[in-house]
User: What shape does this take?
Amino acid sequence: MTSTPLSPDAIAQIKQAAGDHLFLHAQQTADWRGAGPRMYVKGDGVWVWDAQGNKYLDAMAGLWFKSAGYGRKEIADAVYKQMTEIDSPPAGGVVPVQAQVAAKVASLYHDKNARLFLVSGGSEAVETAVKMAKKYHHLNGKGGKYKILARRGSYHGGTAMSASLGRANADTMGPEMVGAINVVNTTPYRCAYCDGKCNLKCANEIETVIQFQGADSVAAIIAEPISAAAGIHVPHKDYWPRLREIADKYDVLLIADEVITGFGRLGSWFGTERFGVKPDLTTVAKALSSGYAPIAAAIATKKVADAFIGDQSKTFRHLITFGGHPIAAAAAVKNLEIYEREKLVENSRKMGEYLFDQLQKLYEHSIVGEVRGGYGLLAAVELAQDRQTKKQFPKEAGLATKVPQKLTKKGIVSFRAADLIALCPPLIITREQIDFIVKVLDETIGELEQELGVK
Ligand SMILES: Cc1ncc(COP(=O)(O)O)c(C=O)c1O
Assistant: This one.
């Protein structure tokens, strides 16, 4: 397959319009000047084409979401059908496909009696789960429990409240959410407590914070099964069970933020399954529709959801106009059908093992500090000046520009790759395509070594 390039005039016109009128998300908008961000015009499977007709393997699955791959006509057909039947309900009503997607996701979740609050994106899902956790305690006569513990360096969203949690993308926007308490993360390769031989002090510290804050003031702990924002460090196998234990001990709800890991990314439907833990609330988004339409959800276990069932005083007074939009719900239902038919979760597990195995070859390069992964198709290669001391490259080494430039030139789309190269390919990926990714990484790192004069 190929893609017809746009004419240089058409590209110039679009760039002019974008440069004058469009904000770039979390990027410097002035970057539209000069070469500007790459414009993509076509996608098929794991491949995408830019406006100039160049082809790339998308090793990031969009922004961690294109799990079923690009160009799925049957998802487009399902959306078209829904749109032409009834695109959205009158006030207070529902459209059948909204119930259908909720029931399907609940059937895949650890609690088959779970209830979903459908929204449009991950940040809204996090806002919803946090509000739900606070009101849950209120309804149980413990309204003083309002604080939310999040781990430093984690990312839970871009809205004002969710950005307070973890502060991965902190900005100067004034006071954060009252009650957002940021605690230590788990980053085994760069752990302040244990030098890689985990003693669970990072988890135990969370208990210390709860005791210090007072358990009667803490509503929930929120954490990603593996935090992409904090560096794709795989936690110790006892880390998540320890979080569960702490949450239970202090009557604190455990919220798993599975916006990236939900729907097969770690080789299981939900990432927490890999760590043997059942959270009270789970947030999902991106891969729910493989990014074909914006849909997300806060999933509440029956224990939590039942608190909201009864008279009007128990109603969860939370409303997002386009939350769970039927068109997006139709895309999600079809996407999950594809998942089951093509066994994408199994493929993620199998191909994830293969990817992790192949990435070990990169240790031949002295600037490879650590290769992380082994849990489905989420992996990372961290570059360091010295593997033993883990000394990081200075800014002047220019990795933030050199690495993405080299990867793109060799035919791979990455995201903010610098000394940490994240890998999150579509779950449909094959061995041959993984071989291509590893070959490109091998060449890229080899060239970097020569340029940096370390070999
Ligand atoms: C773990 C996690 N939570 C929440 C969000 C926010 O999702 P969204 O950008 O869809 O609002 C993200 C986005 O990347 C995420 O990775």
